[in-house]
Amino acid sequence: MKTIISKYTLFEYLAGRANPLERQQVEDWILDKENTELFNQWILEYETKCPQFIPDQDAAIQMLLHRIETDIEPVADNSKSQNENKKSDFFSTRSNSFWLIAASVMFLVSCGWWFREPLQYKTYQTAYGQTTDVYLEDGSKVALNSNSKLRIPRFGFDDHVRNVVLEGEAEFSVSHTIDHKRFVVKTSEQFQVEVLGTTFSVFARPRGTKVALKSGSVRIDYSQNNERKEMMMEPGDLAVLDFTGGVKLAKKQDTSTFATWKEKRYVFNATSIGEIAAMISENFGQRVVLSDPEMAQRTITGNFKTKNADELLKTISEVLDMKVEQNGNTILLMNH
To answer: Which CATH number applies to 120-255?
Structure first.
């Protein structure tokens, strides 16, 4: 039988006022993974109402300086050799004491924030070969591609902006709000996409960042050479972040092909084998090795419906007259 507790019981437990039976019930309830979400919500509420630690940085620094000045006192000695040894020990001990105190203060000041992020934000994550739809409280929908992460505020957006963080690839269908609240997709400290209501795709992988706009309008904010810049996009635009930090804009693109992975479909338009190999690694977690480096430049055009990397590579190999060999998570492509 599953243990059920109330928020009041948990708060009494955290305050140290629970009896032995209640303590056991709370600890059994916490260990049940199904209660993790509710536990995080309640413990954040408790921490907000009854904070266990409120760091006073000014006081901590003053305490640190005071300890440095008074913690170790030099001892006078009549012997020259003993005095030198004492002096050496003093500076050694003083140095060790300084770093120990500094580390302690920094730990106390920062530890209160280490555990706040998992409580304040919820992360949706997909595995290799998995896609999912995430529905946000404002009515917006996010289609999340394989091997991707979406982080959103656990307890709702704030009053001014709807912030989310993306690692990987997703298509956003953003709902417009009555109060014109902005919607911002952040992929790094240097790059973010801001909209009011629109449909667009974002690709944010280690090998590059792209934004394809289907409808509405978005603004891209980015940093290049420590200078903040922005760029407006219109439907049909494709923005690509290059390795210098600049953004290149291509007009009148077929942006409908940028999220076909939602239908387990892949559309290639003179796409190189090298790029397809990288995509398979990102989406399916399988490494593609080419027997001849020149094969990476070969291209393919077509619309392929497939469930996994094996099916996709089989189709490509038949079209391009290649041979496929698989060894665990490594796939070898060879010319016939």
So the answer is: 2.60.120.1440
**Whole-number pLDDT of residue 118:** 64
CATH of domain 264-335: 3.55.50.30
Name the residue with higher pLDDT: 14 or 184.
Answer: 184
Average pLDDT over residues 62-87: 51
Tokens for 311, please give them. Answer: 């099916």
Phi, psi of 185 (to 5 degrees): -105, 120
pLDDT grade for 100, boundaries at 50, 70 and 90: low
